[in-house]
Design brief:
With about 240 residues, the protein is α/β, with parallel strands linked by helices. The chain has a domain of about 170 residues: Rossmann fold (3-Layer(aba) Sandwich), CATH 3.40.50. The protein is built from seven helices and ten strands. The strands form three sheets. It has a six-stranded mixed beta sheet with strand order 2-3-1-4-5-6, with helices on both faces. A two-stranded antiparallel ribbon has the order 7-8. The protein is globular and about 45 Å long. It starts with 10 loop residues before the first strand and ends in an 8-residue tail after the last strand. About 15% of the residues have low confidence.
């Protein structure tokens, strides 16, 4: 029998690469996971998947990267693959203005499925900077507005790809380790003071019944007297009753 510690376990991390078609998403994960690059463009149909084993900060990580189609006709299919995502790449091309303008909507699509996760904005094809369709200032402003780290990269030249994924994985691990789960003892949990709960408690307190003996036909009976409320919602005192 062997003793296993937390360090013996592999950390699985799911990442999604999103952005318009032809910005280099498939080439990016091919470069990172297989170390290869091809200039031939082949449209992704639905989703593609590659993974890579790595060790970061003494953590054995299995990084699973999902490459999603950027075409609108595949949107309903690809969005289901965002679920469970822990990191995301928002990719656009230096030579494609439309892909840059679409970045905020891609971020919204991911967060609609998984909430706020670690993301990075990637400007691919910076080797073609002379053909850029957006200014340096516009790109930096976009990153600032979306509150994500910017990476200027070139999949073709293998520039900043390793750094990109190292940042995403390290940020995820740091976020995970800094998440503190606090268990509050039951007797110290806050009381739910919702209107619904209060109404049930107040109704029990207000429905006080006063039973008075009454003689009817020679037999002893009781008369129930309950306090009523005025239109203002305040309690009205029970009237003084004189037994005849």
């Amino acid at each position: 029998m062997c003793d296993m510690t937390e360090d013996d376990f592999e950390v699985p991390i799911k990442g999604v690469i999103v952005g318009n078609g032809a910005v280099g998403k498939s080439s990016m994960i091919q470069r990172y996971c297989k170390g290869i690059f091809t200039s031939e463009y082949k449209k992704t149909i639905g989703v593609d998947f590659l993974e890579r084993q790595l060790n970061i900060e003494e953590n054995d990580v299995r990084l699973m990267l999902w490459d999603t189609a950027g075409q609108e006709e595949f949107d309903a299919i690809t969005r289901t693959y965002y679920r469970g995502g822990q990191i995301a790449v928002l990719a656009f091309s230096t030579t494609d203005r439309e892909s840059f303008d679409a970045i905020p909507s891609w971020k919204d699509k991911v967060e609609d499925e998984v909430g706020e996760i670690v993301m990075a904005l990637v400007q691919n094809k910076v080797d073609l900077i002379d053909e850029a369709k957006m200014s340096v200032e516009e790109v930096e402003e976009m990153a600032k507005k979306l509150k994500v780290k910017l990476f200027r990269a070139s999949v073709k030249e293998d520039f900043n790809i390793e750094e990109l994924f190292k940042y995403l994985v390290s940020s995820y691990l740091s976020k995970r380790d800094n998440t503190v789960q606090v268990t509050v003892p039951e007797h110290k949990r806050p009381v739910n003071l919702s209107k619904e709960n209060n109404s049930s408690k107040s109704s029990n307190a207000d429905n006080t019944t006063i039973r008075l003996p009454v003689a009817t036909g020679g037999e002893q009976s009781t008369f129930e007297l309950k306090p009523s409320r005025g239109s203002s919602g305040k309690k009205v005192k029970a009237p003084n009753c004189t037994l005849l």
